[in-house]
Amino acid sequence: MKRTISVLVEKDAGGLVRIISLLTRRRFQIESITMAACERKCYERITIIIINQSDGSDAASQLTKQMRKLVNVVNVKDITCLPLVQRELLLIKLQVNLIERTEILNLAQVFRFKVIDMTDSTLILEITADPGKIVALYQVLDKYNILQLSRTGEIALTRESSVNTSSLKEYPGFDNNVGVGKNYNKNIEDLFFKGL
């Protein structure tokens, strides 16, 4: 199972190495790690996306307990099941002809990405979105000639509104019977994704 772990650490050259070492010893597959400055001056926030190789969900809770014991770790939280805002950045350079360029520029309206560089034969696109939208766009762009691709790891913050866009059914005031037709839930999710 894929888990999202948020770790607050004091700035320290060896802090990230200790965390990665712990993850590999516990046989967790690391999908992405993002480390950056946060709201506190002398601290950094690490967002780790891991895949739990063992079947037990207890392994993730054991991992968070062991991380708390590491030097310079201030706070560890498994935020997988909490309402989240998740974002990722994708930079992609495509080799295109005139027809393909027009197709891709039309896709920009649907996926809301930016064209940050354009020549006669290439486009560089910048996409900032939730991980699901990144994957969907990548599948659409896969038919074009991709020259280079760079994808950041995910960053995530918990929502204070208690609304989880991946599952609106968890929202306390959400009523499945409200709305018109079967596409109501999908339309609400689309509004949340497009609005953020």
UniProtKB/TrEMBL annotation:
Catalytic reaction equation(s): 2 pyruvate + H(+) = (2S)-2-acetolactate + CO2
Domain of life: Eukaryota
Residue span, ACT domain: 4-81
Extent of the signal sequence: none
Family annotation (SUPFAM superfamilies): ACT-like
One GO location term (cellular component): cytosol
EC number, UniProt record: 2.2.1.6
GO terms under biological process: isoleucine biosynthetic process; L-valine biosynthetic process
GO molecular function, one term: acetolactate synthase regulator activity
Keyword Glycoprotein: no
Class in the EC hierarchy, top level: transferase
Keyword Transferase assigned: yes
Keyword terms, alphabetized: Amino-acid biosynthesis, Branched-chain amino acid biosynthesis, Plastid, Transferase
Subunit annotation: Dimer of large and small chains.
Primary role: Catalyzes the conversion of 2 pyruvate molecules into acetolactate in the first common step of the biosynthetic pathway of the branched-amino acids such as leucine, isoleucine, and valine.
Name of the protein this chain belongs to: Acetolactate synthase small subunit
Lineage: Eukaryota, Sar, Stramenopiles, Ochrophyta, PX clade
Gene name tied to this protein: ilvH
